[in-house]
């Protein structure tokens, strides 16, 4: 709104943009100058500190005259590169860990085989012991020799047995079978012992390989730690070299300090000139003055329309809240506290007409037309009464309209257009039809009745 009212000059927006850009650039240049001045003030102490850090990191070992050759030495240090390349043993460690895993698996497998062989020997020894005892018991039958033995009677009392005892021949066969099994078990024992020995040898060999692999892994881990420490030293040295490079770049910036100061002074003058131009406009004061002029027009029109507070208050537009205020002797009254649709309509009408008058008087870039839709509706008892109009000139009073108030409204519109030499066009869409020559002459077409409408019925 300040622009359309003319409280700011046409190129103010450009001036504001220029002020913003130059102020930002000025702050940047001043910051650069302050950084350079800080570098200059701390240059010697900073250079000596960096040189000592480079020396402690092992980048240099020679003594340097810090009063003469310090900057040149720092330039050489900034080009430092590691003296040897570092290869990470990470992949080799992974391979070695897999080898150890496989060896441990083989070692466990051999241990299982050894336990199985030892268990077999224990079971064979148990079988042999039991078999020997059985054979010893069965040898008692040899006292009978090869003679016939009555196995159905007791040899002591000669009574008949309920269950016949085994024959001597069957017991002798059982004894021979047991003796053969024992002999076979004892013949297998040397082979089993040899197999067990071979398993133990293989287990020992795998254990040795596992020990070697673990030692190799420990060696690789140690190498990795050494590489990590050396890499950390290289990183530390590279960081120092980078800081020295940054320091040397700051030292170079000191060479253009005079040019930088000239640029700061030049832009400072530009910003000062822009600030003076913008402050000289006094936008708020000018806007307040314009609104006072518009408020006088609004008050005059409020009296013409006989609004509620028109004769004891001054009407004005509050540009910040975009509302109308009536300044009464007691207090300011906002439009939303005035009450009645007639007052609200009147506030809008006097504001719009007064603004357009000012726009035309000051040749502001605002279109010179105003469209009002059914403004007289507030002067009827209800919307139904308003819509009951048949567009004739003699039924306003019948519909309960305040004919005088409606006439005042349209007379104000006609007078405003006339006072502005018809440079303002007001378009009114209205049901009311006043029996007045000016009103009738202003009609651009016949009232819409019967079949006459915005969209003809033969189009439908």
TrEMBL record:
Keyword Coiled coil: yes
Keyword Coiled coil among UniProt keywords: yes
Matching InterPro entries: DUF3732
Assigned keywords, A-Z: Coiled coil
Origin superkingdom: Bacteria
Coiled-coil region list: 257-284
Name assigned to this protein: DUF3732 domain-containing protein
Organism whose genome encodes this protein: Fibrella rubiginis
Origin organism lineage: Bacteria, Pseudomonadati, Bacteroidota, Cytophagia, Cytophagales
């Amino acid at each position: 709104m300040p622009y359309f009212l003319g409280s700011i000059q046409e190129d103010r927006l450009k001036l504001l943009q220029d002020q913003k850009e130059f102020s930002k650039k000025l702050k940047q240049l001043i910051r650069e100058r302050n950084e350079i001045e800080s570098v200059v003030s701390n240059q010697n102490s900073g250079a000596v500190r960096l040189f000592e850090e480079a020396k402690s990191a092992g980048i240099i070992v020679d003594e340097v005259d810090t009063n003469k050759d310090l900057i040149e030495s720092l330039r050489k240090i900034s080009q430092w590169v590691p003296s040897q390349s570092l290869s990470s043993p990470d992949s080799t460690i992974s391979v070695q860990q897999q080898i150890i895993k496989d060896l441990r698996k083989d070692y466990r497998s051999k241990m299982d085989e050894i336990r199985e062989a030892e268990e077999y020997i224990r079971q064979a020894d148990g079988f042999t012991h039991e078999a020997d005892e059985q054979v010893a018991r069965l040898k008692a039958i040899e006292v009978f020799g090869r003679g016939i033995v009555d196995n159905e009677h007791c040899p002591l009392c000669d009574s008949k047995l309920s269950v016949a005892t085994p024959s001597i021949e069957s017991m002798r066969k059982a004894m021979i079978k047991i003796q053969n099994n024992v002999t076979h078990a004892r013949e297998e024992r040397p082979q089993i012992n040899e197999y067990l020995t071979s398993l133990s040898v293989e287990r020992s060999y795998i254990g040795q390989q596992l020990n070697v692999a673990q030692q190799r892994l420990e060696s690789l881990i140690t190498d990795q730690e050494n590489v990590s420490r050396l890499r950390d030293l290289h990183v530390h040295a590279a960081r120092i070299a980078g800081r020295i490079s940054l320091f040397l770049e700051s030292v170079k910036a000191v060479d253009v300090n005079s040019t930088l100061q000239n640029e700061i002074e030049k832009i400072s003058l530009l910003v000062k000139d822009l600030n003076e131009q913008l402050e000289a406009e006094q936008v708020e004061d000018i806007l307040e003055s314009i609104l006072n002029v518009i408020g006088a027009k609004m008050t005059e029109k409020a009296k013409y329309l006989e609004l509620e507070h028109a004769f004891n208050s001054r009407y004005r537009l509050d540009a910040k809240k975009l509302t109308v205020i009536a300044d009464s002797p007691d207090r300011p009254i906002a439009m939303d506290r005035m009450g009645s649709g007639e007052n609200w309509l009147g506030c809008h009408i006097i504001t719009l007409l007064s603004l357009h008058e000012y726009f035309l008087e000051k040749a502001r870039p605002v279109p010179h037309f105003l469209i009002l839709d059914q403004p007289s509706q507030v002067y009827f008892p209800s919307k139904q009464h308003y819509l009951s109009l048949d567009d004739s000139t003699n039924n306003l009073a019948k519909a309960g309209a305040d004919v005088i108030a409606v006439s005042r409204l349209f007379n104000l519109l006609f007078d405003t257009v006339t006072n502005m030499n018809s440079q303002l066009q007001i378009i009114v869409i209205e049901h009311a039809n006043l029996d007045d020559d000016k009103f009738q002459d202003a009609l651009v077409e016949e009232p819409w009745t019967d079949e006459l409408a915005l969209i003809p019925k033969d189009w439908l």
